[in-house]
């Protein structure tokens, strides 16, 4: 039996796709093993957003060669689509597959026989038209269910449309089918995942369905305890979606909404499709209907032309908004994007300083949010992650909690009372068993 190992860089979408490709290998009789277990085949799923994607890719290939010098190394994913030729020249790489080819890996690389030159099977990204459904079953706790791929927006800084192609989606019927399969496993939480998930519903270039209808349909699937939306553009987060999720027992009170900048001037140059007023309105609407909702924000600092005053506008905007945490990205130039051609570059040091300020703000916001939740009773999904005899999990509204390790609690949903914030910045809870006894 041939052994295959996978390494995934990047986002939830990549994880869902690796997991699905891996299941395809297992169905064909391959044994999926850890990277260190001398595999015959190494599949590396790359990301174009990752800082130093080229160096990371080279490092993993080198590691694979060290583990098994005769192993077959195939590179897939966003970076493979963007730079197939460069990757094929990395010593030890046997094949590079683009976005349109990666799901046909088994068929295209039949037998995984090494050739003197690396095989490059990467057509132009416009060929990536098919939607390949995917979901991850990496740990038993949660699954990333891919419902949409690609993006028709052209944000000035983003390479994703170049790496993943146009917006396309699965049908609601197919997704419900996958959700039912997942409901039959002991996975407790489904995270709906896509590149631009609010744009869900385009099939063969035509809008056929709407994201809100997917939300309503998947909410009816018995056997799934929790559903989370991974990230949604503010202009696509409609009142209908917010209203519906606020009444749902399965959709959790947690949204992750990219802002990128709190300055309208910068938002326009970035070619984002909203202004700060709309963002503020979305946050207020959510908080009005779900006061305990957790709201995460993506923000980019140091975009070309972002003056110190523009940055302060972002800082103050976020400081005033009832949001719960930030994901801060320092802008970095990506080849073939319009932003990379723009002048008025922000010096690296300045980018780092702005990033640091927002990271500190993020910690303050998280703490404020956690403090607002102390004393409340929430449901925690405990994970298989042990550290110093403690285990962790997230409440429905994304508060990270710690409890004394108990193997019986792994992948269990338990009601707990949030007691205090500990020195690690997570929340200690009242012993779940004790709480259970009192209910
Ligand atoms: S919405 Fe903008 S940032 Fe997001 S994937 Fe599309 S182009 Fe990239």
Tell me what you see in this structure.
This protein is an alpha/beta fold and about 450 residues long. The chain contains 14 helices and 22 strands. Strands 2-1-3-4-5-6 form a six-stranded parallel β-sheet, with helices on both faces. Strand 19 and strand 20 form a beta hairpin. Helix 9 runs parallel beside helix 11 and helix 12 packs parallel to helix 13. The longest helix has 26 residues. It starts with a strand and ends with a helix. The C terminus is likely disordered. Iron/sulfur cluster binds next to helix 6. The site of iron/sulfur cluster has 9 residues, from helix 6.
Short description:
This protein is of the alpha/beta class. The protein is built from 14 helices and 22 strands. The protein has helices at residues 12-27, 53-67, 78-82, 84-88, 105-108, 160-164, 172-183, 211-218, 239-247, 264-270, 276-289, 308-320, 348-373, 432-438, and strands at residues 3-8, 31-32, 41-46, 72-77, 95-97, 119-121, 134-135, 142-146, 148-149, 168-169, 189-193, 202-203, 206-207, 226-229, 254-260, 294-301, 325-330, 377-387, 390-395, 400-404, 413-421, 427-429.
Secondary-structure-based class equals: alpha/beta
How would a textbook summarize the main sheet? Answer: 6 strands, parallel
Q: What does the overall shape look like? A: globular
How much helix is in the residues? 25-40%
What's the tally of helices?
14
Cα-based radius of gyration, to the nearest Å: 22 Å
Q: What is the residue-mean pLDDT, rounded to a whole number?
A: 94
